Amino acid sequence: MSHQTKYQQLAKDILSLCGGSENISSHTHCMTRLRITPIDNEQVQINAIKELDGVIGVVEAETLQIILGTGVVNQVSSAFEQLLNVSGSYDLNNEAQKNKQAISQKNRTPFKLFLRRIASIFIPIIPALVASGLITGITKAIVQAGWLDEKSQAAIILTVIGSGLFAYLGILVGTNAAKEFGGSPALGALAGILIINPASADIMLFGTNILPGRGGLIGVLLAAIFMALVETRIRRFVPQSLDIIVTPTITLLITGIFTYVVFMPVGGFISDAITSGLTYLLNMGGIFAGFVLGATFLPLVVTGLHQGLTPIHMELINSIGDDPLLPILAMGGAGQVGAAFAIYMKTKKKKLKRAIAGGLPSGMLGIGEPLIFGVTLPLGRPFLTACLGAGIGGAFQAYFQIATKAIGVSGLPLTFIVHAHQMLLYLIGLFIAYVAGFIFTYLFGFHDDMAVEFEEK
């Protein structure tokens, strides 16, 4: 069976076990997960999905998150969408579907629901963030090493390619925020433009000129969400024949005024509070703060809530010029890698060895879900010892105040986006997390009797 046929069959099996196309309200995917919103959760056969060949794990949250791994998820998601389109029953505007979703959402924690909606705004942007961050980081490392003159055309071209996203990121965030909250994507993009537009520097309010970009991504989120809410409410009272003219015009006018008077100052205040609070915590807490942050990150990955931290990372870079939080949290994956190595060394079960061998390359490259859902979480105790190893690495990163200049994938690739003079220190911290995760797991976290579900059948 070819890879393409295998992906198509897996998509078909997932769709069938989710209750068929009539039971699918929406779907999307991130770097490792196919995220499905069923209409009726009772029709979904969770245990059967977990048993499918190619499925690493399943997370039941606001959406059904099926862990497939990098590369595979793109292929399966594409095949899944084709199956829905062929069925002809995939209707996002169906009122019955919306009502059932609304009833289901009432039973969810509002805070978790909010974080997941924020995560849904940033998940589609992550590939662009990773690519831009790596190109920017590698370019700066090459220039710093003296291998390329920073004034050369090659360096300038690479810098322009890598830095473009960060200059206009607010537009993408605004677009996705509008989609998530039921507004028009184009108007959401305008919310981002309102914040970053250099011409806003000529606006004087309360005796002070506006600072373009003030409020950062927090301001963009506030403006875009507000714009979506205003748009949907105005549309209720505007005749359909005038909607295309009246609704967007009034929406933009109202949002523009609120953006400059309210959202930019409020966004700036929130941004300052977040960045000041985190930097104070890291400066005062030092090693202890690094340990706690590093050790508690993996549970966030399990729930999928870690994506909600993306705007915080971006605000740190926007406000203080770098991000001291990301290297600490990156140790979560490193502790996981160390734990997986320890299990590989101790176990005699071939099925478990194959699972680890398949997940380790992705884990070292910053994609931890295959090891989490395929190895340590099912085993139980190794997940906890991996967290302890991550905490040791996080303490090291916090002590030496390692920081990144951009957002990117953790693990080894993150080396290229930390400050050039800190690259070696980051790698030492990464190795320490590997070793700590290995030692904790080898000594206290695993024995072969725990791996019953990995017995060959």
Task: Give a brief outline of the structure.
This protein is about 65% helix and about 5% strand. It has about 450 residues and is mostly helical.
What is this structure's SSE topology?
Blueprint: H1 3-17, E1 24-29, E2 33-38, H2 46-51, E3 57-60, E4 64-67, H3 72-87, H4 95-106, H5 110-122, H6 126-144, H7 153-180, H8 185-196, E5 204-205, E6 208-209, H9 216-235, H10 243-295, H11 297-303, H12 310-320, H13 325-329, H14 331-346, H15 350-364, H16 369-379, H17 381-399, H18 423-445
Antiparallel strand pairs: 1-2, 2-4, 3-4, 5-6
Helix pairs in contact: 1-3, 5-7, 6-7, 7-8, 7-9, 8-9, 8-10, 9-10, 10-12, 10-17, 14-15, 14-16, 14-17, 14-18, 15-16, 16-17, 17-18
Protein traits:
mainly alpha; 457 residues; four-stranded antiparallel β-sheet; Gyrase A, domain 2; 3 domains; single chain
Can you offer a commentary on this structure?
Helices cover 66% and strands 5% of the residues. α5 packs antiparallel against α7 (153-180), α14 crosses α16 (369-379) and α17 runs antiparallel to α18 (423-445). By secondary structure, the chain is mainly alpha-helical. The model is unreliable at 90-107 (pLDDT under 50). The strands form 2 sheets. The chain has a 4-stranded antiparallel β-sheet with strand order 1-2-4-3, sandwiched between helices. The chain is built from 18 helices and 6 strands.
